[in-house]
Design a protein that fits this description.
It is elongated and about 55 Å long. It is mainly alpha-helical. It is built from 9 helices and no strands. The longest helix has 20 residues, at 2-21.
Length: 136
């Protein structure tokens, strides 16, 4: 009997600990939580987005641009790309690192794609552009 009582107490304690450590939707209105959940955002991800100052509308903007993985949203955002800029670079097939390098040379995603397709590096493209040359 004592073993059963201790076992039940242990299971109850573990259940309470598990509940206390799992992310929740506290602080979100039901409508906001529903919007985030509809995008596939977990409570943990939502908490991270909230720390970044994002609302469900902001998250939706990133998703609309094809950037849906929270880590990627954070990385592009932290590199000072807007959702629409990041979406254009992403759609053109650039990684964040490459997009950042091309953008530092003052290329748009569309222009950078033309130069990259012509097998030019950002440095080469920048030099050629200064000389009035076009990719190709």
């Amino acid at each position: 009997m004592n073993i059963t009582k201790n076992l039940c107490f242990s299971i109850f304690a573990l259940a309470l600990t598990a509940c206390g450590s799992s992310p929740s939707w506290d602080g979100y209105s039901p409508a906001e939580a529903n919007k985030l959940q509809a995008m596939g955002v977990s409570a943990e991800e939502a908490a991270h987005y909230r720390e970044m100052g994002f609302t469900s509308g902001t998250v939706q903007t990133w998703h609309d641009q094809g950037i849906t993985i929270p880590h990627n949203v954070t990385a592009w955002h932290d590199a000072h790309f807007s959702a629409s800029e990041a979406g254009a670079w992403h759609a053109a097939g650039f990684s964040l690192k490459d997009a950042y390098e091309w953008r530092e040379k003052k290329f748009s995603a569309a222009d950078a794609k033309l130069w990259r397709d012509a097998d030019k590096s950002p440095r080469e493209a920048e030099k050629m552009r200064k000389k009035g040359q076009a990719p190709g």
